[in-house]
Write a structure and sequence with these properties.
The protein is an alpha+beta fold. It contains 19 helices and 86 strands. Strands 30, 32, 33, 35, 36 and 37 form a six-stranded antiparallel beta sheet that branches. A six-stranded mixed beta sheet has the order 54-60-61-57-51-55, with no helix packed on it. Strands 2-9-8-4-5 form a five-stranded mixed beta sheet. 26% of the residues are buried.
């Protein structure tokens, strides 16, 4: 088997040259090929570019070679592949060999579509890897030498094209055979064959013109008179083209298609699809179409309106100038500076017809301005309209329209009878006006005759007025004319009050008296803030402060109102480091006066009333800019406030020594709540003795065991001398600090000795302090804090007892945030304590590592071997009971005795102290000796070196001494062995205990995990129950909102023909008559499938159609083989029967064998298209006609559909599912109907093609829920009227395609339950609408049929009768069980039933899920209880 595989293993690819191939032209060496042929896979026009190779499995000497054929290659998984690689672009073309011919040769034909050098390499590939040697050849593809087509485009594609204006430069691009631009070296020759260098050159021989049929009435032509051509970037650029002519009547734009032809090359069009939009030219003519009407109405009086002006603008060819910019200018021949007309001022835009109506419809027209009329003659006004293409252009069409205005009649000058003054903009006829201090205002002087008519006043005849009352200051200007009246600017200041301004008598009018002008002067602009404390004027520290503030002007007048909003800033402290002010309001106060509230708290303790400064400020807008005023504007810089010491502000701690009347009782276990642990209760100690204040000098204490500080009572004092009623609500901290110690030492000591701490009374624990009831004689009982059971320092020295009381959210005190901001959350106190050493208590061993009963050390004892001396040094010190060293010079006696010696053990022991002496003197409290030596004999073991003070034997101590006797070495070794065994046994017991402890911890952790998991599962189940209950409540509310019950649902279903079987059958369509079109259409499809297909038994046995041929077969004997349809010899031309022939191709020659069987196919493009158009229905098994695709619950709906379609469409309809063939001639559908569809029924059926893409995109949206069409307003399913529905949505269909077909047949026809409802809606029906009523409740028909209303596109409406069809072969079918929801969704009431039943179904499902969630919660609770029990 291995040898066989080696024989078929490729080793090399070998080329077959032309000689080897028997003269067939194969490429076997490097070759040059033109691109025109290479891209098609040819060498020249007739010779294919074939590469032929064989695959060898041996050496190349020709003796051991074996050619591997196709079968052997396929068995081994080998593929022969050609890879053509372009050297420059590195692009690859890969071809797998599929043609093997005689001798095992593989033929491959590359198509090289890019100029340049290609390397064609042929290799054997297996699993992506190359096997053996490859063969390659280089093929050079030459650059194109000519072009084969042209393309045209405008250089500026976005430019607007207009009549009589040069078109954008037209760019003509030559394209070679591979679709790449061919750069022209020069302009092509002209029509006479002259080159561009010839002086008579007439431009390139390009034919440019408008092609195709123009719209009716349009007469556009292309003007080539200014045409110029030049060559740039290898392209021809043509400029100077223009379109001239007229559009269709009434149109301001049109469309053309330009065609460019160049010699014998295919012509190019611009655009390729559609037409170029050409707009009107620049405006050249602007006329007033009703000029006579405007002129006939002249002259115009004051206030008269000009008639509507109908302007029309056209270009030079008379085309309507659409969207032109119209500017308006007015002028007149008078002296008045105002415009002659009021009304529209422009600019305007012309309509699509080039028109614009000034003053037409609701737009205002021109009205004559009275100011421009003249007394001496008629005035002439001119309206100048200028039409331009855009607003930036200056020149355009101009229309100047002169308008004559009427002459004014002269009036007599009235005689002055009365004079009066008033404030400008003040109340009309008011005798008293209010003005602000320092604000400018105007007064006016006006006169009238006896009839009240205004008289003209001359300022030279009237003097300046003066102030008639004292107390005010005024600045008055000069009289200035303003029409018939005189005006003067005035500014008043001073104290607010009433002021009169009088006018002196005029020399010209002495008989006329002018009444004084009475004014009320009020405060002017705010200048400062004035404030006062509300209440008794003695605000208390820590309490709320209320300040009343108001604004004053620069003359200290109180501002009672202001034109803009006044905002008050919160109170602020003048010195924030001394006083904290907390604003107690929300938002800023507004108004000219305000009460500002704040809580004030001094940052230092107040012992007496203290004055502080507050800053008050307000802001208001003046001239759009915020202005700020403060108390700095009034005599003092700030607002002073004197604060009294606070009645609720803690100032310090009052500390006294006390004696208790009783001690705290024992703890009792009283259960105050349901917690597992009990909270102990305590009796509050009481003090009935007089309180002893602490002296200023330090407290002296003696260091002693269990020494305590004296009991101290602490009272919390307020600034006003009162005491806090419940001090236990505060937090007290106490600590002892060694005086004179460094900061590091103090920190270390605090860490070793935590501060004492007393928490709040609600959480008492057994600590060293607590509340105390103070009842000293002659004083009222009070509560304080008791500091007791505090251990005294054991080390002599100077100490400081530091106390700190913290109070945060404590009832009766200021808020904690206020205290924190004022840095008043704590008060402290400190007292000096001196601790002195006690009397001598013991001699404490002092050797490093020495062991004695007094020291508690566990280090090795002092070792002594035989009678050798052991170094000793200082070995004991004299100390008190707290181990404090005492300097002393007393005498100490030494002795030696056996450790734990019994009554009989000391016999025979002669050991005694050899050195030092048994009597030693203390040196500054220390006991020293150079060495310890023993003499005599004794057993090895533990001994005690005892020492005691000679003056007091109770002051003693001892050192442990391990004595080794060399004679006891064996006994000592045995003892060590026994100790090692005991140690090993103890370690084993310890290890077993540790393992048992670890197992217990593991079990405890596992139980805790199970408990936690059970708790989480129960919590999840509980949350799910709550969520289910919320969803149930929401869904019940949604269901109840429909207002339906089972009876209403049943009634509505019956009315729609569904639900109850008996009721539904009463209104349903009767037995549907046979639908001949549907039956025959299905038979036609089966017939076409049989007639237009043949069974190809030699390939796969499947049936194939005409277009499936030719069918390739396996190569046979070096030939290509395929099956092909060819006319039979007995056929009459190419349209006759075709048989199946087997065709062989070898060496470029073909020969056919056959026919292979008796089957024939005849060309039938109409039948092929019909089968394709019905194929989607064939595949789904639903070949139906239009009426077969719909079902209705009410026979009346079927009658209406038939009656609406029969007059227009005849009988049934065939629905096609594919567009017509792209190249179908106009007669294609005529032949299709005559040949295949008309014979099906009589009258012939209607054929409905699918809509074009644009129409399909405009079809209504389909509701994804119900499958109905959203035809109502806002995408709704129903019309916005009761008892109305869309007919297409009342038809039940299977799929969107069928419903779309019904929509295209019926449109938006609306069905009403009653004719009265239909007639009510008919007045609002849109154009092209059809309305039908099922029931004639008005009785207007007087017989059978249905009420019909239709509205045309022009808006006219027609009432008619839709006759009930007597008989018809087209009937809509019965409902199926699945149609119920569609039937109900077709009407608004039925849709409510659908949504109600869905909500009821969802509610039922939620109730089931809720029950399951409750069961799961109960199960999780049981599991949680079981896990908790197991953990215990």
């Amino acid at each position: 088997q291995f040898a066989q595989l080696e024989k078929t293993k490729p080793s090399a690819v070998v080329c077959i040259d032309t000689a080897t191939a028997g003269g067939y032209p194969f490429v076997s060496e490097d070759t040059d090929v033109p691109i025109e042929f290479a891209r098609k896979g040819n060498i020249d026009g007739d010779t294919p570019l074939w590469l032929a190779v064989k695959v060898h499995n041996g050496s190349t000497d020709g003796r051991t070679n074996k050619v591997i054929n196709k079968t052997e290659l396929e068995k081994g998984g080998y593929v022969v592949k050609l890879t053509a690689t372009h050297k420059s672009s590195r692009r690859d073309i890969i071809i797998a060999a599929s043609h093997f011919y005689a001798g095992g040769a593989a033929w491959l034909q590359p198509k090289l579509d890019e100029p340049g050098e290609w390397v064609c390499s042929i290799a054997v590939v297996k699993d992506g890897a190359t096997v053996g040697k490859t063969w390659s050849v280089a093929i050079s593809v030459a650059q194109p030498v000519r072009y084969e087509s042209i393309e045209v485009e405008f250089e500026d594609e976005d430019a607007t094209l207009r009549i009589n204006e040069a078109l954008p430069t037209l760019v003509v691009t030559a394209v070679d055979c591979v679709g790449v631009q061919f750069e022209l070296p020069a302009l092509p020759d002209d029509r006479a064959g002259r080159t561009q260098d010839d002086p008579d050159y007439d431009g390139p021989a390009l034919d440019i013109d408008i092609v195709g049929q123009q719209p009716q009435g349009q007469q556009l032509r292309l003007d080539l008179s200014q045409q110029q051509a030049l060559l740039a970037d290898g392209k021809i650029r043509i400029s100077g083209l223009a379109v001239r002519g007229t559009f269709a009547t009434g149109k301001s734009s049109g469309g053309v298609k330009l065609g460019v032809a160049f010699g014998e090359l295919p012509s190019a069009t611009l655009p390729q699809r559609g037409r170029l939009e050409i707009k009107c030219g620049r405006p050249t003519h602007l006329v007033l179409e009703n000029a006579e009407e405007v002129a006939d109405a002249a002259p115009y009086d004051a206030g008269a309106s000009l008639p509507p002006m109908q302007l029309r603008c056209t270009d030079v060819d008379g085309n309507p100038a659409k969207d032109m910019h119209l500017e308006l200018e007015m002028s007149h021949d008078g002296e008045a500076g105002s415009d002659p007309f009021t009304g529209p001022s422009g600019p305007f835009r012309t309509s699509a017809k080039g028109e614009y109506v000034v003053g037409g419809g609701k737009s205002p027209g021109f009205t004559v301005n009275e100011d421009v009329l003249r007394y001496d003659a008629e005035a002439v006004a001119t309206l100048k309209f200028v039409a331009t293409l855009d607003e930036d252009e200056v020149e355009g069409a101009v229309l100047e329209l002169p308008v004559r205005l009427a002459q004014l009649e002269q009036e007599e000058e009235p005689e002055l009878a009365t004079l009066a003054m008033s404030v400008v903009l003040g109340p009309a006829g008011s005798s008293t006006s209010t003005v602000g201090c320092g604000e400018e205002f105007k007064i006016e002087l006006y006169g009238s005759d006896e009839d009240g008519n205004a008289c003209h006043l001359d300022p030279a005849e009237y003097a300046k007025p003066y102030l008639a009352s004292s107390g005010g200051l005024g600045v008055l200007g000069d009289w200035k004319p303003n029409g018939d009246v005189l005006e003067m600017t005035v500014q008043l200041s001073g104290k607010a009050g009433d002021i009169e301004i009088e006018l002196p008598e005029s020399d010209a009018h002495r008989h006329i008296h002018c009444e004084p002008l009475k004014l009320s002067l009020v405060a002017g602009a705010p200048n400062a803030v004035v404030a006062s404390v509300v209440g008794n004027g003695n605000p208390i520290n820590g309490a709320e402060l209320v300040v009343s503030a108001h604004l004053v002007d620069e003359h200290e007048n109180i501002v009672e109102s202001h034109g803009s909003v006044v905002e008050w800033e919160p109170l602020k402290a003048e010195e924030p480091d001394q006083l904290h002010v907390h604003y107690s309001g929300s938002g800023k106060k507004k108004g000219v006066c305000a009460q500002l509230k704040a809580t004030v708290l001094a940052k230092q303790t107040l012992r007496e009333p203290t004055e502080f400064g507050l800053v008050l400020s307000a802001r208001f807008k003046k001239g759009g800019v915020w202005q700020t005023v403060t108390t700095e504007g009034v005599k003092v810089d700030s607002f002073p406030v004197t604060l009294q010491p606070g009645a609720a502000v803690i100032s310090d701690l009052v500390v006294s020594r006390v004696q208790l009347e009783n001690e705290a009782s024992d703890t009792t276990n009283d259960y105050v709540d349901d917690d597992v642990e009990a909270r102990p209760t305590h009796e509050v100690p009481k003090v009935t003795q007089p309180l002893e204040p602490l002296p200023p000098q330090p407290l002296h204490l003696t260091a002693e065991p269990s020494g305590m500080l004296p009991r101290l009572a602490l009272r919390v004092r307020f600034e006003d001398g009162g005491f806090l009623e419940h001090p236990t609500t505060c937090q007290l901290r106490a600590r002892l600090v060694r005086s004179g110690a460094s900061a590091e030492a103090r920190t270390a000591r605090r860490q070793q000795q935590p501060a004492l701490f007393w928490p709040s009374s609600g959480d008492w624990q057994k600590r060293a302090g607590g509340p105390v009831e103070l009842c000293p004689p002659g004083e009222a009982p009070a509560q304080g804090l008791l500091l007791h059971d505090v251990p005294a320092p054991a080390e002599p020295g100077a100490y400081s007892l530091e106390l700190a009381l913290s109070f945060g959210s404590t009832k009766g005190l200021p808020p904690s945030q206020l205290l924190k901001s004022a840095e008043r959350t704590e008060v402290t106190a400190a007292f000096a304590i001196v601790v002195e050493a006690g009397p001598p208590s013991k001699l404490l061993p002092a050797l490093p590592g020495a062991s004695s009963a007094g020291s508690g050390s566990t280090t090795a004892p002092l070792k002594v071997v035989a009678n050798e001396a052991t170094e000793l040094g200082t070995f004991a010190r004299l100390v008190d009971a707290m181990s404090n060293r005492l300097p002393s010079d007393g005498t100490v006696r030494l002795s030696l005795r056996q450790y734990a010696m019994g009554s009989e053990e000391g016999q025979g022991i002669t050991l005694e102290i050899a050195q030092p002496d048994t009597t030693l003197r203390l040196d500054d409290g220390e006991l020293s000796a150079p060495a310890l030596a023993l003499r005599g004999a004794g057993p090895s073991g533990r001994y005690q070196l005892c020492f005691e003070l000679e003056s007091d034997a109770q002051v003693s101590g001892w050192l442990a001494v391990d004595y080794e006797n060399p004679a006891d070495e064996g006994e000592r070794e045995a003892e060590r062995q026994r100790q090692a065994e005991r140690l090993q046994a103890a370690q084993a017991r310890l290890q077993a205990a540790e393992e048992e402890e670890g197992e217990l911890a593991r079990r405890q952790k596992e139980s805790a995990g199970q408990v936690s998991a059970a708790r989480r599962a129960h919590d999840r189940a509980s949350a799910e129950v709550r969520r289910s209950q919320e969803l149930l409540a929401q869904k019940r509310s949604s269901r109840d909102a429909f207002g339906l019950d089972e009876a209403a649902v049943k009634r509505l279903k019956t009315a729609h023909g569904v639900g109850d079987a008996d009721a539904a059958s009463a209104s349903a369509t009767g037995a549907m008559p046979p639908n001949l079109l549907g039956q025959r259409l299905r038979a036609k499809v089966a017939q076409l499938e049989e007639r237009l297909t043949v069974q190809v038994r030699s390939v796969d046995g499947k049936r194939r159609r005409f277009g499936d041929f030719p069918i390739p077969l396996e190569p046979d004997d070096n030939s290509r083989v395929w099956l092909e349809l060819r006319p039979r010899s007995d056929a009459d031309g190419a349209q006759g029967p075709h048989g199946i022939f087997k065709v062989y191709s070898r060496g470029g020659e073909e020969h056919a064998e056959g026919p292979v069987d008796e089957q024939t196919l005849s060309p039938d493009p109409e039948g092929e298209y019909l089968l394709d158009a019905l194929q989607p229905a064939v595949e789904s098994g639903r070949v139906e006609s239009l009426f077969e695709s719909g079902r209705v619950p009410d026979e009346r709906l079927s009658d209406i559909v038939v009656a609406l379609l029969s007059p227009r469409s005849g009988a049934d309809c065939v629905l096609l599912g594919a567009p017509p063939p792209p190249a179908a001639p106009p007669s294609f559908f005529a032949r299709l109907k005559a040949k295949h569809l008309n014979p099906l029924t009589s009258p012939p059926p209607v054929v409905r093609e699918p809509p074009p893409p644009a129409a399909a995109a405009a079809l209504p949206e389909v509701d994804a829920d119900s499958g109905l069409l959203k035809l109502g307003p806002g995408g709704s399913l129903h019309p916005p009227f009761d008892g109305a529905s869309f007919l297409v949505n009342r038809i039940c269909c299977d799929g969107t395609a069928a419903r779309t077909a019904w929509f295209r047949a019926l449109g938006e026809t609306v069905v009403f339950d009653t004719s009265s409802a239909m007639y009510e809606y008919s007045t609002q029906a849109p154009p092209s609408s059809v309305l039908v009523a099922l029931k004639d409740d008005l009785g207007v028909l007087g017989g059978g049929g249905y009420a019909l209303f239709s509205r045309g596109k022009d808006g006219s409406g027609t009432h008619d009768t839709l006759a009930k069809p007597a008989s018809s072969a087209c009937r809509l079918g019965r409902l199926t069980d699945a149609d119920e929801e569609q039937v109900l969704s077709g009407t608004a009431e039925g849709r409510r039933v659908v949504e109600f039943e869905r909500a009821a179904s969802e509610l039922s499902e939620l109730e089931r899920a809720g029950r399951e969630a409750e069961e799961e919660e109960a199960s999780a609770w049981e599991a949680r209880r079981a896990a908790a029990a197991a953990a215990v």
